[in-house]
Amino acid sequence: AQSVTQLGSHVSVSEGALVLLRCNYSSSVPPYLFWYVQYPNQGLQLLLKYTTGATLVKGINGFEAEFKKSETSFHLTKPSAHMSDAAEYFCAVSSTGANSKLTFGKGITLSVRP
Amino acid sequence: GAVVSQHPSWVICKSGTSVKIECRSLDFQATTMFWYRQFPKQSLMLMATSNEGSKATYEQGVEKDKFLINHASLTLSTLTVTSAHPEDSSFYICSARDPGTSKGGTQYFGPGTRLLVL
Question: Which of the 8 DSSP states describes residue B64?
Fold first, then answer.
């Protein structure tokens, strides 16, 4: 069984400040980990993913995340927030099998203050 | 690359009618597609997994006779909400898994379809 925990439902930062969105996972097998972003009334866009190899993964729009097995974490960061980063962010985990499904966290709303 | 489209983007229908939503992978072949439902301010709830050429696998609690899924080709899956009622109003999102090994079987999502049943 797999699960994702995203603590808190809302994060607010000032424009230019560091963005840190936390994600912890539970998985009985080596996981694939994903971060998706959702803008209002739209589908999900893949920000980045970890499958194997380098534990620090870089994604689009300046975001990156680090897979820490010992902490079962996959936190998302961006050094400097932009107004356009305001959206809903979902962390997700899947197994590596051919028929694996995504298990989503409940999501975090990121607000960016001018 | 890895673009998934959905049609229509929104639909309003009367109670008792059926609504069909299409999901297409535009630049890759997807042997597996997924259908999700999302309520306001909530996460995505997986409804069913659709495999090309076979019957869909529904999650527990999802009525397969209510939500008909067809995956007749490697680029098209359809979800039909039969005899829709107001409680079926929701945001429906599909995704398609890119089977290419370099992409780790990543799911790419469509833009969603907002259904309002009056």
Answer: T
Shortest alpha-carbon distance between residue B101 and chain A (Å):
10
Which single residue is written with the structure tokens 């005899």?
B83
State mean pLDDT over A50-68.
93
B76 has a pLDDT exceeding 90? yes
Cross-strand pairs, A25: A4
Contacts of B106 in chain A (CB under 8 A): 34, 46, 49
Minimum CA–CA partner of B42 in chain A? A106
Phi, psi of B30 (to 5 degrees): -115, 110
A100 touches A1 (CB < 8 A): no
Per DSSP, what are the bridge partners of residue A69? none
Distance, in angstroms, between B89 CA and closest chain A CA? 14
CA pair distance B17, B117, nearest whole angstrom: 9
Candidates A111, B31, A95, B112; CA nearest to A103 is A95
In this predicted model, what pLDDT tens digit does every residue of B81-113 receive, in sequence order? 999 999 999 999 999 988 775 555 788 999 999
DSSP SS3 for A62 = helix
Contact state of B104 with A49 under an 8 Å Cβ cutoff: yes
